[in-house]
Amino acid sequence: MDGTIKLTTKRLILRKETMADAELLYNALGCDPQITQYTGWNPYATRASASEKVAEDIRNYEKPGCYAWIIQHGEEVVGTVGAYGYDPDASSIEIGYSIFRASWGNGFASEAVSEAVRYLFENEWINRVHAWCHSENAASSKVLERAGLRQEGLLKRAIRNSDGSLSDQKLYGAIYKEWGL
Ligand SMILES: CC(C)(COP(=O)(O)OP(=O)(O)OC[C@H]1O[C@@H](n2cnc3c(N)ncnc32)[C@H](O)[C@@H]1OP(=O)(O)O)[C@@H](O)C(=O)NCCC(=O)NCCS
Fold first, then answer.
1. Per-residue pLDDT reduced to its tens digit, 102-153
2. Amino acid 132: pLDDT
3. What region holds the N-acetyltransferase domain (predicted)?
4. How far does the centroid of ligand 1 lie from the alpha carbon of residue 111, in Å?
5. Which residues form the pocket of ligand 1, taking CB atoms under 6 Å from any ligand atom?
6. Ligand 1: centre distance to CA 112 (Å)
7. Of 142, 149, 143, whose CA–CA distance to 176 is shortest?
8. DSSP 101
């Protein structure tokens, strides 16, 4: 497995994180409540946790099945995409991603997530990619469908919202043999 190598798409560069990214991730992801509206957790919520998250991602580059990319449009950082929880027995992994709010609606998530999924299947030979998605997160559903994942299930009242209410959660997935068909 090659792990988190540099990837390029038509408009974007996906590259490894460095410690210099932590402050930007804290400001753009940690300080924006809309980013975590549908995800229920925020590893960048404080400067310290953002630093620890980036340091952990960097340490994990040494381990097989750990992926954490910074998404860049030209010189500008616009978000992150990663894959976690690699299960070597099932050859399966979960993906997650965030785009800075100032860059929403440009197709960046669709482009970056599609490339990450392609890489996991075609380069890393991972058999199954899945993602969890809040049932009201319509933008994220579109991103996952564009990347070739399909809804596999619906977990009723499985995610706690910040106002204390519970919402349904969709499970999206794809296996390599069927992906892109
Ligand atoms: C979800 C997220 C990554 C999308 O990023 P993005 O770069 O704006 O996504 P894209 O531009 O590639 O595509 C989004 C699509 O959803 C559509 N969309 C956006 N908001 C929508 C809404 N409220 N309802 C319906 N569709 C919506 C967009 O119009 C676009 O479709 P189009 O290309 O047909 O116009 C971004 O909103 C985000 O970072 N959210 C917070 C973190 C998060 O939810 N991560 C995913 C966890 S599963």
1. 999 999 999 999 999 999 999 999 999 999 999 999 999 999 999 999 999 9
2. 97
3. 12-173
4. 11
5. 35, 38-39, 96-99, 104-110, 131, 133, 137-140, 142-143
6. 12
7. 149
8. G
Give the whole-angstrom CA distance, residue 169 versus residue 163. 16
Which are the contacts of 93, defined by CB distance < 8 A and separation ≥ 6? 65, 67, 83, 84, 85, 86, 87, 120, 126, 128, 129, 130
**What's the CA gap between 37 and 25, in Å, rounded?**
16
- One-letter amino acid of 3: G
Residues contacting residue 83 through CB under 8 Å, at least 6 positions apart: 65, 66, 67, 93, 94, 95, 96, 116, 120, 129
Which atom of ligand 1 is the closest one to the Cα of 104?
8
Residue in this structure with the two tokens 């991103």, named with its chain if needed? 143
CATH number of 7-175: 3.40.630.30
| 19-69 pLDDT tens trace | 999 999 999 999 999 998 998 789 999 999 999 999 999 999 999 999 999
